[in-house]
Structures are given as structure tokens and as C-alpha cells.
Amino acid sequence: MNRIEAALEARKETGVATSPSTEVAEPASKTFADAVPEESQSAGATPVVRIEHLCKSFDGRVVLDAIDLTVPRGKILSIIGQSGGGKTTLLRCINLLERPDHGSIQVNGEAVFADGRVVCPDLAALRRSVGMVFQRFNLFPHLTAVENVMLAQVRAGTPSRTALERSVSLLRRVRLAHRGLAYPDQMSGGEQQRVAIARALALRPSILLFDEPTSSLDPESTVEVLQVMRALAQDGMTMILVTHELPFARGVADWVVFVDGGRIVEQGPPEEIFDRPGQERTRAFLSNEAAAQPDA
Amino acid sequence: MHLASGPFKVPWSDYYGTLFDGLQRTVEYTVVGFAGAAALGLLVALMRVSTVRLVRLPATVYTEVFKNVPLLAIIFLTYFGLGSVGVRLNVFEAGTTSLILFYAAYLSETFRSAIRGVHHGQREAAQALGLRRVDSFTRVIFPQALRLALPGTNTMLVDLLKSTSLLVTISAAELMSQARLITSATFRALEVYLVIAGVYFALCYPLSQGLLWIERRVHAGLPISPRRRRLLRTAAALLTEEEALA
Ligand SMILES: Nc1ncnc2c1ncn2[C@@H]1O[C@H](COP(=O)(O)OP(=O)(O)OP(=O)(O)O)[C@@H](O)[C@H]1O
Ligand SMILES: [Mg+2]
Predict the structure, then answer these.
(1) Atom 16 (ligand 1) nearest CA
(2) pLDDT 10s per residue in chain B (246 long)?
(3) Which of A51, B61, B225, B232 is 20 to 30 A away from residue B84, measured at CA?
(4) Residue A137 and residue A189 in contact, taking contact as beta carbons nearer than 8 Å
């Protein structure tokens, strides 16, 4: 099924689901793409990421089992789920840090992985269009904050002066201009993570992937980082957010996917998943998480 | 009065030239030997962290062989041994080759563990930023590995300088050979070798102190290259402008 067919199909389904005369056998919005209003799907809007039937095993153990996922432009998808459920692996497959076994991945309409093979002609270019923020701050310790933000730009051919100016303005955007010349080990966890966000933004990616960006931070730093992420969301950045900060996910995400045992157990708009989860496993997970977060 | 006893009787002013030549040779052996050993050692280290077994294997064999054979044996093999089968290296070639082969084995161990010591998250972060393999190595992995490797490498440099004295066995005209020459002319072994030991000390001590100074600077993250210093100055100016605006 090619892209256009897929888009038509998606529109048809939406049409069917919203038509009052038709009996609705399935939930109105089965996937994120279907749930997005028609106008944003028209005009040839390709989703930023489209994943179909993605499978991955480690040493014969299935970690991702036939995952289908679509992220339209400007939207925020949140992935929640138990530890070991495959969330990190899923994110790492999108920029091919991890090699899937089967399925296909399209980024900005271009196939980067298909039929079990990497078909992306330029991995570096793909990764420049997909920004990633890791759980543990992976800043380069031998470089100052501003150099961390600069490096990839300069390597991608941006003149040094331009890259520097852009890095300074990105640091301002994460409210760290005053820490530009600090080394990572001189910064707090929250500051480091905000520099990491600035660094991921440096190449103007079309999507940002966050892998539990606040899970190793103290509450105060968590608030700082979440503020920056909320601002990004308001600016219309497309994001996939793996997080245990459920209240935040609920507030910022357009769509929530609950993953367990390498499968998508349930997905839907945040209100639906958090208030009226349809699956027993989702309910169990949510009540567990609520118990683990006394302040939530 | 020339026959009076006491250690200091060598007419040193006659031997300044000889000593100076020896000093120069020693420095040449050290510089060429170390540069070669560092380059070869880095290559071998890179081979040893390769994912391809066929690349790793020869590097491992090389390291193990040259780590476990005495330097003197290597010197004799390259000079007398190869000479006897028609591969004639002159003294300088044989001397530097021996030093390079021997120290590259040790340096490759130091470099390998330094490269391994850089957290794997660093490589991933570089990859995720779309850095190409070469850039990821030269801009992210190598600078960090260099810091880790610096202390061990510096020790090796001083050790190599001292080991050039073994080249006396092939009359390499370095300090030790010159010392032997002066001794055979003056028969004052104690005095001559004391002075020579002093010269080695005068070379090695400032060298190792200087290297320690560099180590400390590098560890503090202080910029060494003028280019980086300029960049950081410009960045500082821009950043304070930002602050003033904010
Ligand atoms: N490189 C690897 N080799 C072998 N097994 C792996 C590898 N990476 C991940 N796994 C396994 O795959 C499973 C899914 O891991 P993953 O890190 O994707 O889960 P996660 O949902 O991100 O968990 P967490 O919430 O703890 O971060 C785990 O059981 C993990 O042990
Ligand atoms: Mg994870």
C-alpha cells in the first residue's frame, strides 16, 4: 500500500466513523492518523513518522511485536508503559540506532527501513532530521554547553559564526544563555538536559524524540525541563515523548499509546486513555503509576 | 696533580661537542621513535576495537608478541638479525624501528583501553546527531580517549627516552654511546656515567613535569589550540550580549 492509498484509506475510515448513518463496529479512531482532523491530512500532509508492523527481537526474545504508529506533523505522541516494555527500543528504531527485524519506517514520507532492510541512503541525514534526547544526559563532557550545541551544525557544513549565533539563541530558548561556557560536569542535571534539548534542536529536526528526559532528575530540575518541553509543544514541534510523568503527558500530548510486552495495548486521546482506559492492563499500569507518584 | 684521586678529573671541555652530539641523537631517537610509536599504536588500537575479527586478530598477535619480547632482543633482531639475511638497515633506521615496534605495542594497550573507556552513550549521542563516523571519532571519542590515555602515554614517552640508552649496544651515537666513548678515552667510568645519568635526569624530569602540566590543563578542560580559544572568546562576547538583552 503506497502513501497516497494509505492517506485515502485513512480519510475514508474517518469519514465512515463520523458518518451518523453508519454503524460503528470499531472505536472511532483506531490510530493517531485517523483521529487527526481531515484538513491537516489533506494538502498532501505526510506524517513525520509512519511505522508499520515493526518487529524487533534481542537474542530470540521479542521486544517489539508488530508495532504500527503514525505521527502527524505538529502533533505530540506520548508513549507510556512498564519498564522493559520496549519503549526505548521503539524510539531507537526510528533513527535506526537500533536495527529492526521486520516492518517499515518512513520519515517525512521517505522510506528509511522496509522489508527488513535499511533503505535509507544517508543515515547521517536521517538522524539530522530526527532529534533525540536521551534519558541520561549524553552531553559531550570535553566541550562547553555552547560547543555541544554547535558541533553537529559545524560538521553538517554550517559556517562556524552562523552555528555559534544559532547555538547562543538556542541556549537562550532553553534559558541557559548565562551557562553557555560551562562544561557539563559544572551544570545541574536539569541544566544539562536543557542543553541536550538545545543540541537536539540545532539541526532543525522535523521531530524530537524524548526518552524519559526527566527520569533521572530531581523534582526542581524536572519542572525546568518540562517547562522547556511545554514551550516546544506550543511552538508546534512534532514530538514523541516516552515518559513516566503522566500528568505532563496528559497535559501536552495529542495522543497516548500504552505499550506493554512489545505491543500497543491501547491508544487514544489522553482523556480517553487516562480517564476511561479500555484495557485491564492499562488500568493496572495507571493505578500502579499513581501509587508510585504521591504528588500526582 | 692529574694523578690525584677523586671523581672529577675528566677534561669535560674537550667533550662538550661529543656530549652535545649525543644529546641531539638521543632527542632525535626519542622524537621519531615516539611519533612513530604513537601513530602505529593508535592504528593497532583502532584495529583492536574493530568489530571485524580478521582485523582484530593480527593486531592482538602483534601486541602480545612485542609486549613480551625484551627491547634489546628487538634491537638485535632488527640490526644484526635482519642484516644477516640481507635487509640492511642503518643504525638510525634499526634503532627507531625497534623503539617504534616495542612502544607501539604498549601504547596500543593504553589507547585501546582509553577508547573503550569512553562511555558508549557518547558514540550514540554523536550518531543520533548525525555525525559521520569519522567526525564522531575525531570530535567526540578521540578527544575524550586522549584525556584518559594521557597519563599512561606520558609515562611511556619518558620511558622511551630512557630506553634509547639501550641503543648503545649498536653504537647509535646517542648519549650512552658517547659516554662509553669518553670512558674508554679517560678510564673514569664513575665520573662519566654519573654525569651522563645527570644529563638523562635533566632531560626526563622537566619533560615529565611539563607533561603533568599539560595533563592538568587538559583535565581542567582548558582550551589548548588557539582556534578554540578564539571561538570561546567570541562565544563569551555573544553570550554576555544575550544576557544584557535578557
Ligand atoms: N541491546 C540489547 N540487547 C539485549 N536486550 C536488550 C537490548 N536493549 C534492550 N533490550 C531488552 O529489550 C527489552 C525492552 O527494552 P527497552 O529498553 O526498550 O524497554 P523500555 O520500555 O524502554 O524500559 P524502561 O522503562 O526501563 O526504559 C528489555 O527487556 C531489555 O532488556
Ligand atoms: Mg527505556
Answers:
(1) A86
(2) 454 455 567 888 888 888 999 999 999 999 999 999 999 999 999 999 998 999 999 999 999 999 999 999 999 999 999 988 988 899 999 999 999 999 999 999 999 999 999 999 999 999 999 999 999 999 999 999 999 999 999 999 999 999 999 999 998 889 999 999 999 988 888 999 999 999 999 999 999 999 999 888 887 777 878 888 999 999 999 888 766 665
(3) B61
(4) yes
A249 contacts A241 by C-beta, under 8 angstroms? yes
Q: In this predicted complex, what is the ipTM? A: 0.81
Chain B within 8 Å of A296 (Cβ-Cβ)? no
Q: Which domains does chain A have, with CATH numbers?
A: 2-22+73-95+122-291 (3.40.50.300)
Contact A156 B130 (CB under 8 A): yes
* Closest approach of B215 to chain A, Cα-based (Å): 14
Distance from the Cα of B131 to chain A's closest Cα (Å) equals 6
Question: Is the CATH number 1.10.3720.10 carried by domain B15-245?
Answer: yes
Q: Are A209 and A87 in contact (CB under 8 A)?
A: no
